Amino acid sequence: MVKAIGVSFDGTETPDRARAIVRMAEEQGADRLWFACHLFQREPIAMAGAALAQSRDLKIVLTALSPYVLHPVYCAMAAATLSEIYPGRVALCLGVGAPRDLDCAGIEASKPLTVVREAIEICRSLFAGETIQHDGQVFKIRDRALATGPSGVPLFVAASGPQMLRLAGKLADGVVISAAASPEFLVSCLDRVAEGESPAGRKVLRLGYAFGAVNAEPTLAHAELRQILAFILRGKHHAPNLEMAGSMLDQQALADAFLAGDWRTVETLLTDEIVRNHSVSGTEQQVRDRIGRYAAAGLDEMVLMGPQTLEDLRNLIRIAKETVA
After folding, report:
1. Nearest residue to 305 via CA among 185, 154, 191, 177
2. How confident is the model at residue 308 (pLDDT cuts 50, 70, 90)?
3. Which end of the chain is less congested by CB atoms within 10 angstroms, N or C?
4. The predicted structure's pLDDT at residue 283
5. What is the pTM of this model?
6. What is the pLDDT of residue 100?
7. Residue ranges covered by each domain of the chain
8. CA-closest candidate to residue 187, choices 300, 294, 301
9. Which of 131, 124, 110, 239 is nearest to 180 (CA)?
10. What is the pLDDT of residues 44-73, one digit of tens each?
């Protein structure tokens, strides 16, 4: 059952817009702000620090910091320092990172399971205040501890593949499922997390992104999300997600049309039905129903993204908070 509502920042927000979103999210009773790390966009640690300083109670998540881009020691330093200044309000999410972003920066993401597992172990030791001795395949660290001392920062992992989901279930405090997941795919992902949860009785938080748009005319709500969903669902790794939702989509044709800027074809391929299957979009009642579907799938926290205006985001947060109350 969804117990918390988060709001996503993807790095495209200007400082003025970010400040306005923080004010509005706090007024509407959102629980957490999620600052995504997308290469070449705005830097999430700086943006998160500004949001913590501006707000009274809002928590933040640095997500998903990639150990291919930032050394795990630096990831731990950033989260622990923010937590020292704002106790109890900071969490860290680790993840491989967006493949296209890594490619553009000339970064090769080899051995992802090994890299993420070692990064989790390193951050966990440092957050516990330990003097670390880590002699891994990828990272080697010895005889140092964080100046901040023990911090207890919650540690999440962004995952979608079966092995990474099981790893999150085994080692993390929470697992983060990326946006555009259908409720059916979400159930499958969380089943893999459960397989990794050990020892018996261990329970990790289930956290997931959801694109949302509300309009009295549902086709207009779906239209708001079509382009961003086309960008995401063209990826080959979303084939199981599409299949489980019953979304009949020619991914190669969608990828070609998106690359060519052929939005008429994109609109034809990515139907209203597919948008509905992979978002919380439509009339207010339809959005409430979709949020209920995601809650029933097993999410503990839903992270909202998608609305273009502050008023639309305000409305979406209100509906989500009322629905999960």
Report:
1. 177
2. confident
3. C
4. 97
5. 0.93
6. 75
7. 4-216+282-324
8. 294
9. 239
10. 999 999 999 999 999 999 999 999 999 999
What mean pLDDT is predicted for residues 163-177?
96
Instruction: Judge residue 34's burial from the number of C-beta atoms within 10 Å of its C-beta, 0-12 exposed, 13-18 middle, 19 or more buried.
Output: buried
Q: Given this model, what pLDDT does residue 56 score?
A: 95
State how far the Cα of 150 lies from the Cα of 127, in Å rounded to an integer. Answer: 5
**What are the CA-CA distances from residue 182 to residues 58, 98, 153, 249, 295 (Å)?**
28, 20, 30, 14, 12
Instruction: Decide: 65 and 75 in contact? Cβ < 8 Å.
Output: yes
What secondary structure, in 3-state letters, does the chain show? CCCEEEEEECCCCCHHHHHHHHHHHHHCCCCEEEEECCCCCCCHHHHHHHHHHHCCCCEEEEEEECCCCCCHHHHHHHHHHHHHHCCCCEEEEECCCCHHHHHHCCCCCCCHHHHHHHHHHHHHHHHCCCCEEEECCCCEEEEECCCCCCCCCCEEEECCCHHHHHHHHHHCCEEEECCCCCHHHHHHHHHHHHHHCCCCCCCCEEEEEEEEEECCCHHHHHHHHHHHHHHHHCCHHHHHHHHHHCCCCCHHHHHHHHHHCCHHHHHHHCCHHHHHHCCEEECHHHHHHHHHHHHHHCCCEEEEECCCCHHHHHHHHHHHHHHHC
- Residue 54, token pair as written in the block: 């501006």
The pair phi, psi for residue 131, each rounded to 5°, is -80, 115
Tokens, residue 220: 């207009």
**Do residues 297 and 182 touch, judged by C-beta distance below 8 A?**
no
The per-residue pLDDT of the chain, averaged, comes to: 94
d(CA 274, CA 38): 26
> pLDDT category, 103, cuts 50, 70, 90?
confident
| pLDDT tens per residue across span 272-301 | 999 999 999 999 999 999 999 999 999 999
d(CA 108, CA 69): 10
* Token pair 């009949």 in the structure block, residue: 248
Report the CATH fold assignment for 4-216+282-324: TIM Barrel (3.20.20)
